[in-house]
Amino acid sequence: MPPDKRDAAYLWDMQESILTIQRFCRGKSHQDYLTDDLFRSAVERQLEILGEASHRVSEDFREQHPEIPWRGIKAQRNVIAHEYGMINDDQIWDRCQHDLPPLLESLRAALNSIK
């Protein structure tokens, strides 16, 4: 089955969320993240968007791209949205610094597979 055109839109949304987080984090430190409520809230919002968009990608497409940690992305979104008292700021910062760059590359490759 060919990819759903909506999949491309959701992948684009995911990519844009990561790029926005990277822009927010540029020139900032871990300490900035811990002490700036506005900065931290903005990053969390983009992670929510990332997770929501990942959930909307079709099941078929997700199965075709197991290199993307779909469940983990959605799980992070659920913690932020529903278990906000369980948010680990150090873990979020680490994910932004270390997990998002390779995820972005995987998303770009997946998006290119649709075109």
Instruction: Provide the structure class.
Output: mainly alpha
Q: Tell me the major beta sheet.
A: none
* C-alpha end-to-end distance: 15 Å
Shape: globular
Overall strand count: 0
- As a whole number of angstroms, the C-alpha radius of gyration is 14 Å
The percentage of residues in β strands lies in under 5%
Uncertain ranges: none
Task: Write the element-wise H/E pattern from the N-terminal end onward.
Answer: HHHHHH
- Average pLDDT: 94
The overall number of domains is: 1
Summarize the structure.
The protein is mainly alpha-helical. It has 6 helices and no strands.
Describe how the helices and strands are arranged.
Elements: H1 5-25, H2 30-35, H3 37-56, H4 59-64, H5 70-82, H6 89-114
Walk me through the structure:
The chain has helices spanning 5-25, 30-35, 37-56, 59-64, 70-82, 89-114. It is mainly alpha-helical and 115 residues long. The protein is globular, with a radius of gyration of 14 Å. The relative contact order is 0.19. The mean pLDDT is 94.
